[in-house]
Specification:
The structure holds 2 protein chains of 2 kinds.
Chain A (H helix, E strand, L loop, with lengths): L1 H34 L6 H18 L4 H24 L7 H23 L4 E2 L8 E3 L5 E3 H23 L1 H11 L1 H6 L4 H24 L3 E2 L3 H7 L2 H6 L5 H18 L11 H17 L24 H21 L2 H26 L7 H15 L7 H20 L7 H19 L3 H4 L5 E2 L4 E2 L2 E2 L3 H24 L1 H11 L1 H6 L4 H27 L1 E2 L6 H14 L4 H15 L7 H15 L6 H24 L13
Helix pairs in contact in A: 1-5, 1-8, 1-11, 2-3, 2-4, 2-8, 2-9, 3-8, 4-23, 4-25, 5-6, 11-12, 12-17, 13-19, 14-19, 14-22, 14-23, 14-24, 15-16, 15-22, 16-22, 19-20, 19-22, 23-24, 23-25, 24-25
Chain B lengths: L9 E10 L2 E11 L4 E5 L6 H9 L6 E6 L2 E2 L5 H7 L1 E3 L12 H12 L9 H14 L15 H13 L5 E5 L7 H14 L8 E5 L3 H7 L2 E6 L2 E6 L1 H6 L1 H8 L4
Parallel strand pairs in B: 3-8, 3-9, 6-7, 7-8
Antiparallel strand pairs in B: 1-2, 1-4, 4-5, 9-10
């Protein structure tokens, strides 16, 4: 009785959070099954709605029973409609592009919230009374908890009933089963998906208000908490609402129960890791049974790419860039040079993601985990004066190899959406379970990292370290270019463009993908050593999911398939830390998010966007001219674009 | 090479595949000789592409075996079969869209040639690619990105790519789909020019909807219907085979 007597109150408490996760899981599943879009931004939508509620109630002093209907019935549906409109044309594109766009929306909402409400957290008191009462001698509950459970259960059951017993439900099921057939039978799939987005966003609003009633409200934490809901959504194979809800309850209970063992010591963060660990394990074990819905939607259109630059052009640009890099220390002051160095180090990290995501087509939301591995390894192994730095960096790169293999493991069975989810779950698991350990990272106080020293020659001065960073980046970039244009680069791009074809011609997909994950991880760890030295001191917060996400977005913005794209990513990163631009930081972040959404479908980055647009205008102009000069001609002009 | 006359280039026997309750292939057998251009026809859903997938190792059969030049390759991975000389084209184009036509061919040659990815035998690869480009009249578009080609050119590049994979057996999955009559005629002329030992080329197994094309280029034909082999023989035998006429061809035109 003793053990069980301790456990069951925890289990009951777990139900409250579980029910909220359940709402979020249903919201995510609902839009995925009707429009084929997995909304990574769901947590950000919930966050934005919670802030809106704070504004209405606490900011403007509205009665909360007025504010809540305004939020749920007006603001949320509006956001839902905007999102639906934004994502509709995206449904036909590859999973990779969909993921990047929804991550871009996530970043956009965060930047917008920062712009409106600033960076300081708010306290959002619960909408229900927080008075507590003794349910039994072992269990003390608050009215908030009880009401939360009721509201969540009622909404969940309501949605389920709506889909089961109304015409809308039948239409939704028809669209899920076969979009085209549903259209032929007079069901408007647009209406169905619009309704789904509206309901899903209303749920997000409720989730946001209920969850932030329990803790402080800021721009970041809610995004992570809503990721808790992704594991149960996967339990329902992203299709079944009741399974998703049940999975969420189970997760809430499980998560609450582990606090029995893990309230202190090494397991202190088990509570937060459980959902991420569950998501990673689910995808790894159960991945071969998951099938992406996307196949049921329209065929994938191939992304417009740029003709590869000529060797001479590359050589000219490279020489010019290197020349500028050499004379730069004479042109700017020391503080600016430090900022530039940050951009240079970031660019070398970005290059490792170009290889993995841009060339091989494997989305990773865990790249900064490897950066952390490199930085912490150097922190442990290098002497305080920096000697042994490069040995330590090499060891960090070696340690990163098995970790890369582990992250790459899901990629053997999964691609696109599920792979992105798996890497995200991995990053979050390492973040909450491993990096948080004092012995590994020095805990929240962090760890100091020396500037490197080789054979007694120190790189401690800003200028010397700058040159070192440029040298590392140059080696990475030249190496990447040589690879890209040689047999290995060709092979990676074959895997990206047509994995099945590549394997039937003799490419070992398993070996190649694992090798790329391992090597890209090792490269990131080596660059991570530089990153650590640059910072001087690092803590787990530097290598979290947010950092990996930011990296992916900047690489996409710069052009994920190009070496130059990594350089652009480094440059934009630098813009964010230049003190002169600090007043405009929020606008820069907003601009990055908008840019990502726009560039997402162009792997070769902003320049191809421009080329593609001008080609479109040229086509338009040509057909217009033809129309004017030969108005009666009925012959269809030959199609020029693919 | 010396022993290739003894066993057929490809021998599949007793191949069965089902998806749930659906029998996609039921005890199907097939042989293709080293000099053959063999045809595989049948209505939609007859199991043609499934048989291709079994031969290339993408689909595990529930039963049956596949032999290449007398060697049982049933348990080999797709990439090992690719290296052993099985190459294919795809019904839905599966080009390496972000690479140039030249790199599509070269990358494929490297994939099929042991050690080539490490940069060995580079010259031989380039010679092979340029030879195939010339053969298929693709030299002028060698520098273009494969993703920007029309379907007709795309099919040609797929053929070129397969020819660069050092094939002993070439599987063509509906190569004429989306081609106009002129392009189809050119395609069959090219096919005759590259197949068989006389051309130092591969044996060919062709899945095709265009019956005229099949009758024109193939030495012998296998007909599938609902996962079962209903006939096998020369074009003239097939043309008058009662089961085939009933299931597929309809009235001779």
């Amino acid at each position: 009785m003793g053990f069980f007597g301790d456990i069951w109150p925890l289990a009951v408490i777990g139900l409250f959070n579980g029910a909220i996760y359940g709402l979020a899981a249903m919201g995510v599943v609902l839009t995925y099954k009707t429009s084929g879009i997995f909304n990574f931004a769901y947590g950000a939508v919930a966050m934005f709605c919670a802030f809106t509620f704070w504004q209405l109630r606490d900011g403007w002093g509205l009665n909360q029973w007025v504010a809540l209907p305004i939020l749920v019935l007006v603001v949320a549906p509006l956001i839902g409609l905007i999102l639906e409109r934004l994502f509709r044309p995206v449904a036909a594109l590859s999973a990779e592009i969909q993921i990047v766009i929804s991550l871009g929306v996530l970043a956009f909402l965060q930047a917008l919230a920062l712009l409106i409400w600033g960076g300081s957290p708010r306290v959002l008191t619960s909408i229900f009374s927080t008075t507590a009462f003794d349910f039994t001698s072992k269990l003390r509950l608050s009215y908030t908890q009880v009401f939360t459970l009721f509201v969540a259960a009622a909404l969940g059951a309501g949605l389920w009933a709506l889909l089961r017993h109304t015409r809308l439900g039948v239409a939704t099921q028809a669209v899920v089963d076969n979009r085209d057939l549903a259209e032929l039978n007079g069901i408007s799939s647009d209406t169905v998906s619009r309704t789904a987005w509206v309901i899903s966003t209303m749920f997000a609003a409720v989730v946001g208000v209920l969850l932030s009633g329990q803790s402080r409200l800021d721009v970041y934490s809610l995004v992570l908490v809503v990721i808790f809901a992704f594991a149960p959504a996967v339990v329902g194979r992203l299709i079944s609402l009741p399974l998703a809800f049940a999975g969420a309850l189970a997760l809430g209970v499980g998560q609450s129960i582990v606090t029995h063992w893990g309230s202190s010591g090494t397991l202190a963060n088990l509570y937060a890791s459980v959902p991420y660990l569950a998501l990673f394990a689910l995808l790894l074990l159960y991945g071969n049974r998951l099938k992406e819905l996307r196949a049921a939607f329209q065929p994938v259109t191939s992304a417009p790419a740029a003709q590869p630059a000529s060797r001479r052009k590359l050589l000219t640009m490279g020489t010019a860039g290197l020349g500028l890099a050499v004379v730069l220390p004479a042109l700017v002051n020391e503080a600016r040079l430090g900022n530039v160095t940050s951009g240079v180090v970031f660019a070398s990290i970005a290059l490792t993601l170009v290889v993995l995501t841009g060339w091989t087509g494997q989305i990773s939301l865990a790249q900064f985990t490897f950066v952390g591995v490199g930085a912490f390894t150097v922190g442990h192994l290098a002497a305080t004066d920096g000697s042994g730095f490069f040995w330590a960096a090499a060891v960090g790169a070696l340690i990163a190899i098995p970790i890369g293999l582990l992250v790459g493991l899901p990629s053997l069975r999964l691609s696109g959406l599920y792979l992105a989810l798996a890497t995200m779950a991995f990053a979050l698991t390492v973040d909450t379970m491993v990096f948080s350990q004092r012995r590994i990272s020095g805990g929240t106080t962090g760890m100091s990292i020396p500037k490197p020293r080789i054979f007694g020659f120190s790189f401690a001065s800003t200028t010397r370290f700058y040159y070192l960073a440029v040298a590392v980046l140059a080696v990475f970039a030249v190496g990447a270019l040589v690879f890209q244009r040689g047999p290995i680069g060709r092979r990676l791009q074959m895997i990206r463009d047509a994995p099945l074809a590549a394997s039937t011609f003799g490419v070992n997909l398993t070996l190649t993908k694992l090798a790329v994950f391992a090597l890209s991880g090792a490269g990131a760890a080596f660059a991570g050593a530089m990153f650590g030295a640059l910072r001087g001191s690092v803590s787990p917060g530097d290598f979290g999911f947010g950092a990996s996400l930011g990296l992916l977005l900047l690489v996409v913005l710069g052009g994920r398939a190009l070496v130059g794209g990594a350089l652009i990513a480094g440059f934009v990163y630098m813009l964010q830390i230049l003190p002169g631009l600090a007043p405009y930081l929020r606008y820069i972040q907003l601009g990055i998010a908008v840019g990502v959404v726009y560039v997402a479908q162009y792997p070769d980055g902003p320049l191809t966007v421009a080329a593609d647009q001008s080609r479109r205008y040229a086509d338009l102009l040509r057909s217009f001219r033809q129309l004017v000069s030969r108005p009666v001609e009925s012959k269809v002009p030959e199609a020029t674009s693919g | 090479m010396a022993d290739s006359s003894a066993a057929p280039r490809l021998r599949a026997h007793g191949v069965s595949v089902h998806f749930g309750g659906l029998r996609a292939l039921d005890d199907v057998g097939l042989e293709v000789g080293g000099d053959d251009i063999a045809g595989l026809i049948g209505p939609n859903g007859a199991g043609k592409t499934t048989l291709f997938n079994v031969i290339t190792g993408v689909q595990d059969p529930d039963d049956g075996a596949v032999e290449l030049d007398g060697v049982d390759i049933s348990r080999w991975s797709p990439h090992r079969r690719g290296r052993a000389g099985i190459a294919r084209t795809f019904q839905r184009l599966a080009l390496f869209t972000g690479l140039t036509v030249y790199d599509n061919l070269l990358g494929t040659w490297e994939a099929a040639t042991p050690g080539a990815v490490l940069g060995r035998q580079r010259q031989r690869g380039r010679e092979r690619v340029e030879h195939v480009l010339e053969q298929l009249d693709l030299t002028t578009i060698a520098g273009r990105l494969a993703g920007q080609l029309s379907t007709g050119l795309g099919r040609m590049v797929e053929l070129g790519r397969a020819l660069c994979a050092n094939p002993r057996l070439l599987l063509l999955d509906e190569p004429s789909a989306g081609l106009d009559p002129d392009e189809t005629a050119r395609f069959s002329a090219i096919l005759r020019g590259v197949a068989g030992t006389a051309n130092d080329g591969p044996a060919v197994l062709l899945v095709e909807h265009d019956v005229a094309l099949v009758m024109d280029v193939c030495d012998h034909i296998t007909v599938l219907d609902f996962g079962q082999r209903i006939a096998q023989g020369s074009p003239s035998e097939i043309r008058s085979h009662p089961a085939v006429v009933a299931a597929y061809l309809g009235q001779p035109t």
